[in-house]
């Protein structure tokens, strides 16, 4: 039996040995081949680049890594924004463990200023045919020329630093370093087709799905290793901003910060005019809290903030002091100057977009004037009310008319006035039923005269 078993097992063992390499090869092929439909996390940057934007991108990249997305797609349409926020975004993109594709779209979109650096930092970059990219010359936080507002040396320092930043990104991603430097130094801007020809971006596509499909199969370098980009027929999962990120993005608008500061001081001023009303004080305090948060996001001139507070303080003082309008006028000037100087033009936090962080004339001029007019009206009403006689409490009874219920004389009597019964006295006797007029209050006893005598 044993020789027969060996005879039967020998062919089976040989067949198994022959089949083993085939099975191993099939297993290796199946493990190396991507399985299933690719998943792409989509982020949308369609406004000014701020610290809220940077936090949004960082959160998206972290989620893509944790949930094993095949790629991250950034749909970009921006005029520019903050330099520090842009640097933070680029650093996260260059160190990402997930491939990143940036698409400048939809039609009419632009990758201006800060958008240039974000596009250059992508593993794969594409543009809508009707979009453009460029103009990354740095300006001050107020949108002015760096040389005029910060000096020639500072302007050269900022320009050289930003140009080197652009070249380093382009080199890391194999893009056109010379064009990247020209975008900073000369503010050059090109169309989508020109960007492809100059090797600034990789391709042109009408929309995000078409862009991802066109980029499919490209070999890109991610975290020091080369991987194949997968985007064809991808499942695109959009990620929206959180409430915190939206709040930071909202507060990064200097117009919002200036309005919050003015509304906050207005609320506190109204609370001082009418102590105990609570609502103006609570709303004003909240506005000031949000304004101080905004000052951590954008460069604000501390002196301008002090001028705004001093201006409102002088307007409040106008209601309590006899300055013949001088305190109110000086307060109005302080508010106007403080608004004009609200953005710190000497801040080293330079921006990429001339209009992204400048105050609108609709905020600079009408808002302080409206604030002054409102506080002036309140002050006028408060001053007017002080000239009127009291209408509440015992002192409010003076000059009120009533009727004697009994004879009223130096020894006293009883009258009916203001819907109430009061003890009263009079220097001259007043018969019961006679109309009387209150002339004074002594404790709980009223001094009265006959109505006929009061009219003389």
Please outline what is shown here.
The chain is an alpha/beta fold and about 450 residues long. The protein folds into three domains: about 35-245, 2-enoyl-CoA Hydratase, Chain A, domain 1 (Alpha-Beta Complex), CATH 3.90.226.10; about 255-385, no CATH class; about 395-455, Beta Barrel (OB fold (Dihydrolipoamide Acetyltransferase, E2P)), CATH 2.40.50.
List the topology elements:
Elements (H helix, E strand, L loop, with lengths): L1 H31 L6 E7 L5 H16 L4 E6 L6 H12 L5 E5 L5 E3 L1 H7 L3 E4 L4 E3 L11 H5 L1 H21 L4 H9 L3 E3 H6 L5 E2 L3 H8 L3 E4 L2 E4 L6 E4 L4 H9 L2 H20 L5 H19 L4 H19 L5 H15 L20 H4 L1 H22 L13 E4 L8 E5 L2 E6 L9 E8 L2 E6 H4 L2
Parallel strand pairs: 1-2, 1-11, 2-3, 3-5, 4-6, 5-8, 14-16
Antiparallel strand pairs: 6-7, 9-10, 12-13, 12-15, 13-14, 15-16
